[in-house]
TrEMBL record:
It is an enzyme of class 5 (isomerase). The lineage of its organism: Eukaryota, Metazoa, Ecdysozoa, Nematoda, Chromadorea. This is Putative hydroxypyruvate isomerase. Pfam families: AP_endonuc_2. It comes from the Eukaryota. Residues 22-257 form the Xylose isomerase-like TIM barrel domain.
Amino acid sequence: MRVAANLNMLFQEAGGLLQRYEAAAAAGFKYVEVSLPYGEDAEKLKEVKERLNLEQVLINSPPGNWDEGERGLACLPEKRDEFRKSIDVAIRYAKALNCSRVHVMAGMAPDDYLRVQSEKVFVENIAYAAERLAAEGITCLLEPINPKTMPGYFLFSYDQALGYLQQIKQPNLKIQLDIFHAYQICGSLTKAVKDLFPEIGHVQVAQVPERHEPDSAGEVDYKDVFKWLLEEGYDGYIGAEYIPEKSTTAGLGWIDKFGLCM
C-alpha cells in the first residue's frame, strides 16, 4: 500500500504549502494529499506538483470560512448556493492537479430545530456534488469525524454515512475511513474495516489519542489495521494525516516498519 503525505499536517517546518510539496518530494514521497489547497493558486500548485513528479491523490472541498468556525457547507440550508459554487472551485483545483478524489466536508450541524431541513439539504447537496464530480471522473468522499475531536460536526457516525450512500445511490460516492476517527466512533476497528470495506474510497491514519505517527504510543495497533486492509484487498492510498511528534522526517520510520511504500 502506498502512503500519501498530507501536506496540511506534515512538513509544516518547511514553510508554506508550495515548500511542503518540495519537502515531501525530497523526503521520498511520490504521493500527496492536501486538505486545504485554496490558499494557493491552482496553477502554481500544478506547476510545482508536475515539476516534482508528484501524484495528487486527494483534496477537500472548500470548507467555507474556517476562521469563523465553518467546517464545510453541505448541511447548511442557508449556504446552498455557496456550496454549489464551492464544488465548482473543488473541480477546478482537482482538474488542475489531476486529482481523482474530493472529500466533501459536511459542516457543523445547525440548531436542533433545523435538523430535518439540514438532513434534506445535505442529501440534495451531496447528490449534486457526487453527480458533478462523477462527470469529471472524480470520486466524492464523505468522512465521519468523531464528536470528541470536532463537537457538533454534522457527519459523526458510519451508520449515518452508509445511510446517505444508500439513499443517494451514486457509484462514485464513497467513505473516507480515517482510522483516528473510526477507532473513537466504533471502538472495534476489525468490524469497521470489514463492514465498511466495499464502500471505502480512501484511508487516513494517525495514532489515538494524540494524533501522532501510527507507530507512536497509543491505543491503535496499526500492524493489525494494515493486515486487515491487505486481507480485504485494499489497493488504494494511505493518507498520512497526523501531527508529527518531532520533525516530519524523523517520524517516517513507520512506513518501512509496516511494510508500506512512499
